[in-house]
Amino acid sequence: MTAPALSVVVLSWNTRELTLACLRTLFAESPRHAREVIVVDNGSADGSADAIAAAYPQVRLLRNADNRLYAAGNNQGAAVATGAYVCTLNSDTEVRPGALDLLVDWLRDHPDYGAAAPRLVHPDGRVQRACMRFPTFGSALCFDSWWGTWWPGSRVQRRYTMADFDHLASRDVDQPPGACCVLRADEWRALGGFDERLSLFFNDVDLCRRLWRAGRRIRYVAEAEVMHHLGASTRNFARMLVIWHKNRRAYYRKHHGALGGLWIDVCVQLRVWEEWLKIGHRNRRDPARKAAERAHLAAARRELRAS
User: Fold this and answer.
1) Ramachandran region of residue 26, left (φ > 0), alpha (ψ -120 to 50) or beta?
2) Which DSSP letter does residue 202 get?
3) What is the dihedral of CA 224, 229, 230, 235, to 10 degrees?
4) How far apart are CA 219 and CA 205, in angstroms?
């Protein structure tokens, strides 16, 4: 049996039909670079693991008793990979024929690059503008906030989200789409994979930043296309927002020190106050709903303060 050149790690959590569709596209083609597929099921309650085992017995299936979240789950899959390259692939994707081969080709032909990622598209074919520049103190203040809707905050936002890039051509980027990314396996291991303190968010940003700091470049390969059901793998996760803020704080502490963590705490408080006012405005004729939404917001703030 030919040793795989590429190990594809698919993390699955309660996305049975999407995961099966993802695997269907992986096995529908005969890739130029031999590959193995590893699925890590994070304690799904929808029968995902059994369905995958029945439909694709050739998959190496790792079953977790509970949800270990994104960073730990991907690290678990990559730890058993045998390929020279590792691809982290979201379960809510469908890989177009030849896409992963193109990413491996790029890294083989360009030894100064540490990672390569494809163009993501919506199910209707529209391009997802998913590349971003590394977050700054300004983007922390402006992202998803009133501050980012007005100049100069809007300019900060446009820079952070790469609004100047149409995603139709290949180029070097800070942070490519996290839904699909290929790295050399030895480099992945040298970096220690994803930082598990960034359990669900910012782990890919952190990994890219560590690559760049090591002098490695990252390529967005527009010719490689992957369809992505945007947000399908996380939209049902109830604690997503709280974990997002916790992970963002951990990222800023790691890369900007204590001041970075303090700045995120300030940004969170400003965002909480903004949301408090919005709740009051949209529920001004429904006092009961207003009280319930503000109670939920207060509980989230207490959890963030306690972490």
Assistant:
1) alpha
2) S
3) -150
4) 14
How far, in Å, CA of 186 to CA of 192, rounded? 10
| Nearest alpha-carbon partner for 11 in 67, 57, 51 | 67
- At 89 the three-state DSSP class reads strand
Is 70 exceeded by the pLDDT of residue 57? yes
> pTM above the 0.85 mark?
yes
Q: Residues 234-269: pLDDT tens digits? A: 554 446 778 888 999 999 999 999 999 999 999 988
Q: Is 67 left (phi over 0), alpha (psi -120 to 50) or beta?
A: beta
Which SS3 state, helix, strand or coil, does residue 31 take? coil
Kindly tell me the number of DSSP H helices and DSSP E strands found in the chain. Answer: 10, 9
Contacts of 273 by beta carbon, 8 Å cutoff, 6+ apart: none
Render pLDDT for 201-215 as a digit per residue (tens, 0 to 9). 999 999 999 999 999
Phi-psi region of 152 (alpha: psi -120 to 50; beta: other; left: phi over 0): alpha
Q: Which token pair is 197?
A: 């303190």
